[in-house]
Specification:
two-stranded antiparallel sheet; 3 helices; single chain; 5 strands; about 110 residues; about 50% helix; about 25% strand; alpha+beta; HU Protein, Chain A
């Protein structure tokens, strides 16, 4: 099973790679996530080269029925955030998967 990375682990990795203090890495991470959030909210679209493409899509509302009571409920129109990974990110993930499979079967 894949290991889940937390914010502190990401911040520590960023600080080591950029040779900066963890406090600065934390500020950079917060500024990046705030910028991504603001751009998606205001424009509905963001393309980060090497990472992927974020965009919003409207999910239509309608009427649904509670399966237990049979009562009808109104479902509101909502916006969904869609992420499509870049080609280079897909390749990197697939290459890692190939290495892991080879290690598991002993090649």
């Amino acid at each position: 099973m894949a290991k889940y990375n937390t914010d502190p682990e990401f911040i520590s990795e960023l600080a080591q790679r950029l040779n900066i203090k963890p406090d600065y890495a934390k500020e950079i991470t917060k500024a990046f996530t705030d910028s991504v959030r603001n751009l998606i909210v205001t424009n509905g679209i963001l393309n980060v080269r090497g990472l992927g493409f974020f965009h919003t899509r409207t999910r239509k509302g309608g009427i649904a029925r509670n399966p237990h009571t049979g009562q009808e409920m109104k479902i509101a129109v909502m916006m969904r955030i869609i992420f499509r990974p870049s080609h280079s990110l897909k390749q990197a993930v697939n290459e890692r998967a190939k290495r892991v499979r080879k290690e598991q079967i002993g090649f």
